[in-house]
Amino acid sequence: MEPRVQYAKTSDGVSIAYYTMGEGIPLVTIPLWFSLVTGRWDDASAFNEGMSHQKRLVAYDNRGTGMSQRQVDDLSVEAFERDLEAVVDELGLESFALFAPNLSARIAINYATRRPDRISHLILWCPVVRSDDMLETSQVRGMSAMLENDWELFTELVAQLVHGFAGGETSRQFAAGLRESITPDTAKALLDSARDVDVSDLLPKVSVPTLVMHRREMTVPALDVSRTIAASIPGARLVLVEGGSILPHLEDADAVLAAVDEFLGVESRRPTAAESSREAGALVTVLFTDVEGSTALTDRLGDAKARDLLREHERMTREALETHGGSEVKTMGDGFMASFSSATQALECAIAIQGAFAERNESAEEAIKVRIGLNAGEPIAEDDPSGRGDLFGTAVNMAARIASKAEAGEILASNVVRELVAGKEFLFADRGETELRGFEEAVRVYELSWRDS
Protein backbone atom coordinates (compact mmCIF):
# COMPACT_ATOMS: atom_id res chain seq x y z
CA MET A 1 0.00 0.00 0.00
CA GLU A 2 1.34 3.43 -0.93
CA PRO A 3 1.96 5.80 1.98
CA ARG A 4 -0.26 8.80 2.75
CA VAL A 5 1.19 12.02 1.34
CA GLN A 6 1.14 15.14 3.54
CA TYR A 7 2.49 18.67 3.10
CA ALA A 8 4.79 21.03 4.97
CA LYS A 9 5.38 24.71 4.24
CA THR A 10 8.91 26.13 4.02
CA SER A 11 10.00 29.46 5.50
CA ASP A 12 9.87 30.95 1.98
CA GLY A 13 6.35 29.63 1.35
CA VAL A 14 6.99 26.49 -0.76
CA SER A 15 4.78 23.41 -0.24
CA ILE A 16 6.79 20.20 0.28
CA ALA A 17 5.18 16.75 -0.10
CA TYR A 18 6.30 14.06 2.35
CA TYR A 19 5.27 10.74 3.87
CA THR A 20 6.28 8.65 6.87
CA MET A 21 6.23 4.91 7.53
CA GLY A 22 7.28 2.72 10.42
CA GLU A 23 8.06 3.45 14.05
CA GLY A 24 11.38 3.94 15.82
CA ILE A 25 14.47 6.07 15.20
CA PRO A 26 13.56 8.92 12.81
CA LEU A 27 15.43 8.45 9.51
CA VAL A 28 14.98 11.27 7.01
CA THR A 29 16.00 10.72 3.38
CA ILE A 30 16.95 13.64 1.17
CA PRO A 31 15.75 13.02 -2.41
CA LEU A 32 17.55 13.35 -5.69
CA TRP A 33 15.78 14.58 -8.83
CA PHE A 34 13.18 11.90 -8.98
CA SER A 35 10.28 11.62 -6.61
CA LEU A 36 10.60 9.63 -3.39
CA VAL A 37 6.87 10.07 -2.87
CA THR A 38 5.65 8.92 -6.28
CA GLY A 39 6.98 7.16 -9.35
CA ARG A 40 9.29 4.65 -7.63
CA TRP A 41 7.15 3.13 -4.90
CA ASP A 42 6.59 -0.27 -6.55
CA ASP A 43 10.24 -0.56 -7.56
CA ALA A 44 11.61 0.36 -4.13
CA SER A 45 8.81 -0.79 -1.81
CA ALA A 46 10.76 -3.70 -0.28
CA PHE A 47 13.77 -1.46 0.35
CA ASN A 48 11.61 1.26 1.91
CA GLU A 49 10.01 -1.31 4.18
CA GLY A 50 13.50 -2.42 5.21
CA MET A 51 14.49 1.19 5.84
CA SER A 52 11.43 1.57 8.09
CA HIS A 53 12.20 -1.54 10.17
CA GLN A 54 12.46 -0.27 13.76
CA LYS A 55 12.78 3.21 12.25
CA ARG A 56 10.41 6.00 11.31
CA LEU A 57 11.25 6.57 7.67
CA VAL A 58 10.56 10.10 6.42
CA ALA A 59 10.73 10.70 2.66
CA TYR A 60 9.89 13.89 0.79
CA ASP A 61 10.11 15.54 -2.62
CA ASN A 62 12.36 18.55 -3.08
CA ARG A 63 10.87 21.77 -4.38
CA GLY A 64 10.32 21.67 -8.12
CA THR A 65 9.95 17.88 -8.22
CA GLY A 66 7.44 15.12 -7.62
CA MET A 67 4.37 16.13 -5.64
CA SER A 68 5.99 19.19 -4.11
CA GLN A 69 5.38 22.69 -5.46
CA ARG A 70 6.71 22.77 -9.04
CA GLN A 71 6.96 26.48 -9.88
CA VAL A 72 9.89 27.76 -7.82
CA ASP A 73 12.76 30.15 -8.50
CA ASP A 74 15.29 29.30 -5.79
CA LEU A 75 17.09 25.95 -6.31
CA SER A 76 20.14 26.69 -4.16
CA VAL A 77 21.62 24.43 -1.48
CA GLU A 78 20.14 26.78 1.13
CA ALA A 79 16.68 26.46 -0.47
CA PHE A 80 16.86 22.65 -0.32
CA GLU A 81 17.88 22.94 3.34
CA ARG A 82 14.66 24.87 3.91
CA ASP A 83 12.73 21.94 2.35
CA LEU A 84 14.37 19.53 4.80
CA GLU A 85 13.81 21.80 7.78
CA ALA A 86 10.15 22.33 6.90
CA VAL A 87 9.46 18.59 6.97
CA VAL A 88 11.29 17.81 10.21
CA ASP A 89 9.73 20.86 11.90
CA GLU A 90 6.27 19.81 10.73
CA LEU A 91 6.85 16.39 12.30
CA GLY A 92 8.33 17.87 15.47
CA LEU A 93 11.61 15.94 15.12
CA GLU A 94 14.15 17.36 17.54
CA SER A 95 16.79 14.81 16.50
CA PHE A 96 16.95 12.50 13.50
CA ALA A 97 19.26 10.42 11.32
CA LEU A 98 19.83 11.79 7.83
CA PHE A 99 20.31 9.69 4.67
CA ALA A 100 21.73 11.70 1.77
CA PRO A 101 22.39 10.10 -1.63
CA ASN A 102 24.81 11.43 -4.23
CA LEU A 103 24.50 15.18 -4.98
CA SER A 104 22.19 15.66 -2.00
CA ALA A 105 25.24 15.06 0.21
CA ARG A 106 26.11 18.73 -0.22
CA ILE A 107 22.77 19.64 1.40
CA ALA A 108 23.34 17.21 4.27
CA ILE A 109 26.90 18.40 4.92
CA ASN A 110 25.79 22.03 4.96
CA TYR A 111 22.93 21.25 7.35
CA ALA A 112 24.98 18.94 9.59
CA THR A 113 27.61 21.61 10.18
CA ARG A 114 24.98 24.28 10.76
CA ARG A 115 22.67 22.20 12.99
CA PRO A 116 24.69 19.34 14.51
CA ASP A 117 22.32 19.38 17.50
CA ARG A 118 19.56 17.93 15.30
CA ILE A 119 21.50 15.19 13.48
CA SER A 120 21.98 11.96 15.43
CA HIS A 121 23.60 10.08 12.53
CA LEU A 122 24.66 11.08 9.02
CA ILE A 123 24.62 8.50 6.20
CA LEU A 124 26.13 9.54 2.86
CA TRP A 125 25.36 7.22 -0.07
CA CYS A 126 27.78 7.43 -3.05
CA PRO A 127 28.22 11.08 -2.10
CA VAL A 128 29.33 14.09 -4.11
CA VAL A 129 30.41 17.26 -2.28
CA ARG A 130 32.24 18.89 -5.22
CA SER A 131 30.13 19.24 -8.35
CA ASP A 132 33.17 18.65 -10.58
CA ASP A 133 33.50 15.10 -9.25
CA MET A 134 30.29 14.21 -11.06
CA LEU A 135 29.02 16.92 -13.37
CA GLU A 136 32.35 17.40 -15.14
CA THR A 137 32.90 13.72 -15.94
CA SER A 138 32.68 12.80 -19.61
CA GLN A 139 29.61 10.59 -19.04
CA VAL A 140 27.57 13.31 -17.35
CA ARG A 141 28.69 16.03 -19.77
CA GLY A 142 27.44 13.88 -22.65
CA MET A 143 24.11 13.30 -20.91
CA SER A 144 23.78 17.02 -20.16
CA ALA A 145 24.09 17.76 -23.87
CA MET A 146 21.37 15.22 -24.58
CA LEU A 147 19.13 16.87 -21.99
CA GLU A 148 19.19 20.01 -24.09
CA ASN A 149 18.03 18.19 -27.23
CA ASP A 150 15.91 15.12 -26.38
CA TRP A 151 14.28 14.90 -22.94
CA GLU A 152 12.70 11.48 -23.48
CA LEU A 153 15.91 9.92 -24.75
CA PHE A 154 17.77 11.51 -21.83
CA THR A 155 15.43 9.89 -19.27
CA GLU A 156 15.65 6.53 -21.06
CA LEU A 157 19.44 6.69 -20.93
CA VAL A 158 19.42 7.60 -17.24
CA ALA A 159 17.14 4.63 -16.57
CA GLN A 160 19.41 2.30 -18.53
CA LEU A 161 22.46 3.51 -16.65
CA VAL A 162 20.66 2.96 -13.34
CA HIS A 163 19.11 -0.43 -14.10
CA GLY A 164 21.52 -1.76 -16.72
CA PHE A 165 20.75 -2.21 -20.40
CA ALA A 166 18.82 -5.40 -19.57
CA GLY A 167 16.48 -3.53 -17.23
CA GLY A 168 13.51 -4.04 -19.56
CA GLU A 169 10.12 -2.95 -18.27
CA THR A 170 11.52 -1.82 -14.90
CA SER A 171 13.87 0.55 -16.70
CA ARG A 172 11.06 1.92 -18.89
CA GLN A 173 8.84 2.51 -15.86
CA PHE A 174 11.68 4.31 -14.12
CA ALA A 175 12.17 6.61 -17.12
CA ALA A 176 8.43 7.35 -17.19
CA GLY A 177 8.48 8.07 -13.45
CA LEU A 178 11.42 10.42 -13.94
CA ARG A 179 9.53 12.35 -16.63
CA GLU A 180 6.53 12.61 -14.28
CA SER A 181 8.72 13.79 -11.39
CA ILE A 182 10.47 16.68 -13.06
CA THR A 183 10.21 18.87 -16.16
CA PRO A 184 13.08 19.35 -18.62
CA ASP A 185 13.38 23.00 -17.65
CA THR A 186 13.64 22.18 -13.96
CA ALA A 187 16.17 19.42 -14.67
CA LYS A 188 18.34 21.93 -16.55
CA ALA A 189 17.95 24.47 -13.77
CA LEU A 190 18.93 21.89 -11.15
CA LEU A 191 22.04 20.98 -13.11
CA ASP A 192 22.98 24.62 -13.47
CA SER A 193 22.44 25.30 -9.75
CA ALA A 194 24.61 22.32 -8.82
CA ARG A 195 27.60 23.48 -10.86
CA ASP A 196 30.53 25.06 -9.06
CA VAL A 197 29.23 23.80 -5.69
CA ASP A 198 32.00 22.69 -3.33
CA VAL A 199 31.42 22.01 0.37
CA SER A 200 34.55 19.90 0.84
CA ASP A 201 35.99 22.53 3.19
CA LEU A 202 33.13 21.74 5.60
CA LEU A 203 33.99 18.03 5.90
CA PRO A 204 36.49 18.40 8.77
CA LYS A 205 33.83 20.40 10.64
CA VAL A 206 31.28 17.54 10.63
CA SER A 207 30.94 16.47 14.25
CA VAL A 208 28.12 13.92 14.05
CA PRO A 209 28.63 10.13 13.62
CA THR A 210 28.97 9.57 9.87
CA LEU A 211 28.71 6.51 7.62
CA VAL A 212 29.90 6.78 4.00
CA MET A 213 28.68 4.05 1.63
CA HIS A 214 29.72 3.36 -1.95
CA ARG A 215 29.11 0.70 -4.58
CA ARG A 216 32.30 -1.08 -5.49
CA GLU A 217 31.76 -1.04 -9.28
CA MET A 218 30.38 2.49 -9.53
CA THR A 219 32.49 4.84 -11.65
CA VAL A 220 30.48 8.09 -11.43
CA PRO A 221 31.14 9.19 -8.80
CA ALA A 222 34.36 7.23 -8.41
CA LEU A 223 35.14 5.17 -5.33
CA ASP A 224 38.05 7.49 -4.53
CA VAL A 225 35.55 10.32 -4.04
CA SER A 226 33.88 8.44 -1.18
CA ARG A 227 37.24 7.40 0.24
CA THR A 228 38.35 11.04 0.33
CA ILE A 229 35.09 12.18 1.92
CA ALA A 230 35.27 9.46 4.60
CA ALA A 231 38.91 10.32 5.34
CA SER A 232 38.06 14.02 5.67
CA ILE A 233 35.23 13.62 8.20
CA PRO A 234 36.50 12.95 11.73
CA GLY A 235 35.65 9.40 12.80
CA ALA A 236 33.68 8.58 9.65
CA ARG A 237 33.21 4.95 8.65
CA LEU A 238 33.42 3.72 5.03
CA VAL A 239 31.40 0.67 3.91
CA LEU A 240 31.58 -0.77 0.38
CA VAL A 241 28.79 -2.86 -1.14
CA GLU A 242 28.58 -4.76 -4.40
CA GLY A 243 27.19 -3.42 -7.66
CA GLY A 244 27.33 -0.28 -9.74
CA SER A 245 23.87 1.33 -9.44
CA ILE A 246 23.43 4.74 -7.89
CA LEU A 247 20.10 3.62 -6.40
CA PRO A 248 20.50 1.88 -3.03
CA HIS A 249 17.39 -0.27 -3.47
CA LEU A 250 18.87 -2.05 -6.50
CA GLU A 251 21.42 -4.88 -6.61
CA ASP A 252 22.70 -5.82 -3.13
CA ALA A 253 20.07 -3.88 -1.19
CA ASP A 254 20.22 -6.26 1.80
CA ALA A 255 23.83 -5.27 2.43
CA VAL A 256 22.85 -1.59 2.33
CA LEU A 257 20.03 -2.14 4.84
CA ALA A 258 22.29 -4.20 7.10
CA ALA A 259 24.97 -1.49 7.16
CA VAL A 260 22.40 1.22 7.92
CA ASP A 261 20.84 -0.83 10.73
CA GLU A 262 24.23 -1.63 12.25
CA PHE A 263 25.27 2.03 12.13
CA LEU A 264 22.02 3.15 13.78
CA GLY A 265 22.21 0.39 16.40
CA VAL A 266 19.05 -1.27 15.11
CA GLU A 267 18.63 -5.05 15.08
CA SER A 268 18.28 -6.09 11.44
CA ARG A 269 15.41 -8.24 10.34
CA ARG A 270 17.26 -10.38 7.84
CA PRO A 271 16.13 -13.73 6.43
CA THR A 272 17.55 -16.70 8.31
CA ALA A 273 20.10 -18.88 6.58
CA ALA A 274 17.39 -21.41 5.81
CA GLU A 275 15.00 -18.79 4.41
CA SER A 276 17.63 -17.32 2.10
CA SER A 277 18.69 -20.76 0.87
CA ARG A 278 15.29 -22.30 0.13
CA GLU A 279 15.09 -20.97 -3.40
CA ALA A 280 15.93 -23.81 -5.76
CA GLY A 281 19.52 -23.68 -6.89
CA ALA A 282 20.49 -20.92 -4.47
CA LEU A 283 24.27 -20.61 -4.29
CA VAL A 284 25.46 -19.94 -0.74
CA THR A 285 28.93 -19.23 0.61
CA VAL A 286 29.43 -20.82 4.03
CA LEU A 287 31.94 -19.41 6.51
CA PHE A 288 33.24 -21.09 9.66
CA THR A 289 35.29 -19.41 12.38
CA ASP A 290 37.10 -21.15 15.21
CA VAL A 291 39.05 -19.79 18.17
CA GLU A 292 42.36 -21.63 18.25
CA GLY A 293 43.19 -23.33 21.54
CA SER A 294 39.92 -22.52 23.29
CA THR A 295 40.17 -25.60 25.51
CA ALA A 296 43.70 -24.72 26.61
CA LEU A 297 42.50 -21.16 27.16
CA THR A 298 39.87 -22.37 29.61
CA ASP A 299 42.36 -24.60 31.44
CA ARG A 300 44.81 -21.72 31.81
CA LEU A 301 42.44 -18.83 32.62
CA GLY A 302 39.53 -20.58 34.24
CA ASP A 303 35.91 -20.72 33.09
CA ALA A 304 34.93 -17.12 33.89
CA LYS A 305 37.86 -15.33 32.23
CA ALA A 306 37.83 -17.66 29.23
CA ARG A 307 34.12 -17.04 28.79
CA ASP A 308 34.71 -13.27 28.85
CA LEU A 309 37.16 -13.67 25.96
CA LEU A 310 34.73 -15.82 24.00
CA ARG A 311 31.99 -13.24 24.51
CA GLU A 312 34.33 -10.65 23.04
CA HIS A 313 34.95 -12.99 20.09
CA GLU A 314 31.20 -13.38 19.61
CA ARG A 315 30.60 -9.61 19.72
CA MET A 316 33.34 -8.78 17.23
CA THR A 317 32.32 -11.57 14.85
CA ARG A 318 28.67 -10.57 14.94
CA GLU A 319 29.60 -6.95 14.19
CA ALA A 320 31.47 -8.10 11.07
CA LEU A 321 28.55 -10.32 9.99
CA GLU A 322 26.11 -7.42 10.41
CA THR A 323 28.29 -5.05 8.40
CA HIS A 324 28.91 -7.48 5.53
CA GLY A 325 25.44 -8.98 5.15
CA GLY A 326 26.13 -12.38 6.71
CA SER A 327 23.44 -14.58 8.27
CA GLU A 328 24.49 -16.23 11.51
CA VAL A 329 23.48 -19.88 11.29
CA LYS A 330 24.73 -20.93 14.72
CA THR A 331 27.50 -20.48 17.23
CA MET A 332 29.40 -23.40 18.73
CA GLY A 333 30.82 -21.63 21.78
CA ASP A 334 34.24 -21.03 20.31
CA GLY A 335 33.23 -20.54 16.67
CA PHE A 336 30.55 -19.46 14.23
CA MET A 337 28.84 -20.84 11.17
CA ALA A 338 27.48 -18.16 8.85
CA SER A 339 26.10 -17.95 5.32
CA PHE A 340 26.30 -15.32 2.59
CA SER A 341 24.49 -14.86 -0.72
CA SER A 342 27.71 -13.28 -2.08
CA ALA A 343 31.18 -14.87 -2.05
CA THR A 344 32.69 -11.37 -2.19
CA GLN A 345 30.86 -10.33 0.96
CA ALA A 346 31.89 -13.55 2.70
CA LEU A 347 35.57 -12.92 1.95
CA GLU A 348 35.30 -9.27 2.95
CA CYS A 349 33.71 -10.37 6.21
CA ALA A 350 36.52 -12.87 6.81
CA ILE A 351 39.09 -10.11 6.19
CA ALA A 352 37.23 -7.78 8.56
CA ILE A 353 37.18 -10.45 11.28
CA GLN A 354 40.89 -11.18 11.03
CA GLY A 355 41.72 -7.48 10.82
CA ALA A 356 39.63 -6.68 13.90
CA PHE A 357 41.27 -9.41 15.98
CA ALA A 358 44.75 -8.51 14.75
CA GLU A 359 44.20 -4.91 15.83
CA ARG A 360 42.76 -5.99 19.17
CA ASN A 361 45.60 -8.41 19.89
CA GLU A 362 48.24 -5.70 19.49
CA SER A 363 47.31 -4.16 22.83
CA ALA A 364 45.41 -6.96 24.60
CA GLU A 365 46.87 -8.93 27.47
CA GLU A 366 45.35 -12.14 26.12
CA ALA A 367 45.21 -12.71 22.35
CA ILE A 368 42.18 -14.16 20.60
CA LYS A 369 43.43 -16.11 17.59
CA VAL A 370 40.86 -17.09 14.99
CA ARG A 371 41.00 -19.36 11.96
CA ILE A 372 38.48 -19.17 9.14
CA GLY A 373 37.39 -21.53 6.35
CA LEU A 374 34.98 -20.96 3.44
CA ASN A 375 33.26 -23.00 0.78
CA ALA A 376 30.36 -22.36 -1.60
CA GLY A 377 27.61 -24.63 -2.86
CA GLU A 378 23.90 -25.44 -2.58
CA PRO A 379 23.35 -26.61 1.01
CA ILE A 380 20.17 -28.17 2.32
CA ALA A 381 18.14 -25.68 4.36
CA GLU A 382 16.03 -26.90 7.28
CA ASP A 383 14.52 -25.45 10.44
CA ASP A 384 15.60 -26.95 13.75
CA PRO A 385 12.98 -27.72 16.48
CA SER A 386 13.20 -24.14 17.76
CA GLY A 387 12.33 -22.82 14.28
CA ARG A 388 15.81 -21.43 13.64
CA GLY A 389 17.24 -22.05 10.20
CA ASP A 390 20.15 -24.44 9.74
CA LEU A 391 22.19 -25.63 6.76
CA PHE A 392 23.38 -29.15 6.01
CA GLY A 393 25.14 -31.06 3.26
CA THR A 394 28.46 -31.47 1.50
CA ALA A 395 29.05 -27.76 0.97
CA VAL A 396 28.73 -27.13 4.73
CA ASN A 397 30.86 -30.10 5.73
CA MET A 398 33.66 -29.05 3.39
CA ALA A 399 33.67 -25.49 4.77
CA ALA A 400 34.02 -26.88 8.31
CA ARG A 401 36.85 -29.21 7.30
CA ILE A 402 38.69 -26.39 5.48
CA ALA A 403 38.45 -24.22 8.61
CA SER A 404 39.99 -27.02 10.65
CA LYS A 405 43.06 -26.95 8.35
CA ALA A 406 43.68 -23.23 8.91
CA GLU A 407 46.24 -21.85 11.34
CA ALA A 408 45.62 -18.95 13.69
CA GLY A 409 45.06 -15.74 11.71
CA GLU A 410 44.55 -17.60 8.41
CA ILE A 411 41.66 -17.60 5.95
CA LEU A 412 41.39 -20.71 3.78
CA ALA A 413 38.91 -21.09 0.91
CA SER A 414 37.93 -23.74 -1.58
CA ASN A 415 38.58 -23.35 -5.29
CA VAL A 416 34.84 -22.73 -5.81
CA VAL A 417 35.04 -19.58 -3.69
CA ARG A 418 38.20 -18.43 -5.45
CA GLU A 419 36.58 -18.82 -8.87
CA LEU A 420 33.42 -16.98 -7.77
CA VAL A 421 35.46 -13.85 -7.05
CA ALA A 422 37.74 -14.07 -10.08
CA GLY A 423 38.67 -10.57 -11.22
CA LYS A 424 38.08 -9.02 -7.80
CA GLU A 425 40.93 -7.60 -5.71
CA PHE A 426 41.57 -10.71 -3.64
CA LEU A 427 45.01 -12.34 -3.46
CA PHE A 428 45.15 -16.11 -3.04
CA ALA A 429 48.07 -18.46 -2.45
CA ASP A 430 47.69 -22.06 -3.64
CA ARG A 431 48.03 -24.44 -0.69
CA GLY A 432 47.75 -27.45 -2.96
CA GLU A 433 45.70 -30.64 -2.67
CA THR A 434 44.57 -31.22 0.91
CA GLU A 435 43.09 -34.33 2.50
CA LEU A 436 39.86 -33.51 4.33
CA ARG A 437 38.31 -35.90 6.81
CA GLY A 438 35.17 -37.50 5.36
CA PHE A 439 36.09 -36.75 1.73
CA GLU A 440 37.49 -39.49 -0.48
CA GLU A 441 39.35 -37.17 -2.86
CA ALA A 442 41.82 -34.46 -1.92
CA VAL A 443 40.53 -30.88 -2.22
CA ARG A 444 42.55 -27.93 -3.53
CA VAL A 445 42.64 -25.20 -0.90
CA TYR A 446 43.73 -21.55 -1.22
CA GLU A 447 44.93 -19.15 1.45
CA LEU A 448 43.55 -15.62 1.21
CA SER A 449 46.34 -13.09 1.75
CA TRP A 450 44.00 -10.85 3.70
CA ARG A 451 46.53 -8.22 4.76
CA ASP A 452 47.18 -7.42 1.08
CA SER A 453 43.66 -7.90 -0.32
Walk me through what this model shows:
With 453 residues, the protein is α/β, with parallel strands linked by helices. The protein folds into 2 domains: 6-264, Alpha/Beta hydrolase fold, catalytic domain (Rossmann fold), CATH 3.40.50.1820; 273-448, Alpha-Beta Plaits (2-Layer Sandwich). The protein is 41% helix and 22% strand. It is built from 16 helices and 17 strands. The protein has helices at residues 41-51, 77-90, 105-114, 132-135, 138-149, 151-163, 168-181, 184-194, 223-232, 253-264, 273-277, 294-301, 303-323, 343-363, 394-405, 415-420; strands at residues 6-9, 15-21, 25-29, 55-60, 96-101, 119-125, 210-215, 237-241, 284-291, 327-331, 335-340, 370-377, 380-383, 389-392, 411-414, 428-434, 443-448. The strands form 3 sheets. Strands 1-2-4-3-5-6-7-8 form an 8-stranded mixed β-sheet, sandwiched between helices. Strands 10-11-9-12-15-17-16 form a 7-stranded mixed β-sheet, sandwiched between helices. It has a two-stranded antiparallel sheet with strand order 13-14. The two termini are 44 Å apart.
Report the principal-axis shape.
elongated
Count, helices = 16
| CATH-defined fold name of the largest domain | Rossmann fold
Helix amount: 40-55%
Question: What would you say the CATH architecture of the largest domain is?
Answer: 3-Layer(aba) Sandwich
Major beta sheet, strand line-up? 1-2-4-3-5-6-7-8
Contiguous uncertain segments of 5+ residues: 272-280
| Total strands | 17
User: Roughly how many Å is the radius of gyration?
Assistant: 24 Å
The average pLDDT value, as a whole number, equals: 84
Major sheet attributes: 8 strands, mixed
Tell me the name of the CATH class of the largest domain: Alpha Beta
Q: Which strand-content bin applies to the residues?
A: 15-25%
Beginning-to-end CA distance, first to last residue: 44 Å
Number of domains: 2
